[in-house]
Predict the 3D structure of the following.
Amino acid sequence: MSATMVAGGVALAAEYELVSTVIISRHGVRSPIAGHPAFATFAADPWPPWPVPAGHLTPRGAEFAKLLGAYYREYYAAQGLFPANGCPPPGLVFAWADVDQRTLVTAQSLLDGMFPGCNLAPGSLTNAKIDPLFHPSRAGVCKVDPSRARRSVTNSAGGSLASLRRTLRTEIAAMQSVLKCCQPALCRAAGANAPCSLRNLPTAIVAEGSGNVRLSGPISIGSTASEIFLLEYAEGFPERQVAWGEGIHASGNSAVVAATWSPVRFDGAYALSCGTTGLGPHGEDIINAATRRGYKRDEGSRVHALGGTRYQPRQYWGDAWNALVAALLSCK
């Protein structure tokens, strides 16, 4: 089963044999998860309804995950890891999912796509609200020092939240034009006079009860809103409902997409280190890779284990992603 493989962008010699692989994946398309601040407080228009409860994987999300599983089967069969058809021998394939519906159904869909008709099922903790493997800080396995976390976030932001905010001022203004933020309750909670806008909200690092820290203010709101817009598009919402049909014009400097990823890169290496506790001795490798490549904390803190690669197979995801970006930048 010798084959030429690529790891970290370097082609390996033909004598290397692929004997096993680990896929670390996030969930598929889900409905928005209620957070802080409440969605209704930073948007003038009502958000469109979803066909599933908050935070649940949608049927479309499950179908996408199944397609991704089919891609993995094709890809790894080409590497000689297992046959292109049929069911794997007992014990050859193992899947473990977090306890939420969206992760359980995603894992099941991936397995169904990889091995159709084989009746494989993912494992997970039963009668548990938190799996320490995925949420070590929430489970109390890893204690976060708020002071160290604040310093780490600030350093990741270039040493100053004010500087980061100035860098993103164009994106914040563009997001304001879509959201028409903010409701009086949000203004008052942020210590700003009502009426206010994203421009008036302070940017701050807020400590949570678990000891974790998060950004509050316009960058965080922009990240949340733009993620919802992406989910709306991926779910196939009518164009008039994706970002209320307004989107971002090309002159907006890709504000929706930029606002999605800019803030989530600044959780800091220290916070990431706690997020990878469940991965044992390879956690530091993952942190370094995630920090370099700017992945979202809950994904990036786990994706690059053992020098792994984040796959977005073009035949299933690449074209959809490109179409999404183009649509958000061009819709009027």
